[in-house]
Amino acid sequence: MKRLLCLLALVVLTGARDPILVPEISQHEVQVRQGFRGADLLLFGAILTPEGSRAGQDYDIVVVLKGPTRSIVLREKQRIAGIWVNAVSAEFRSAPTYFAVASSKPINKIVDDKTAAIYELGLPWLQLSPIGSYDPKQQARFSAGLVDLMQRDGLYKEDARGVTVSEQVLYQARIALPSNVQTGTYTAETFAITHGRVVASAISRVQVKKQGFERFVELFAENDGFWYGLVAVAISVAMGFLAGRLFALI
Question: How far apart are CA 18 and CA 8, in angstroms?
Answer without folding.
Answer: 14
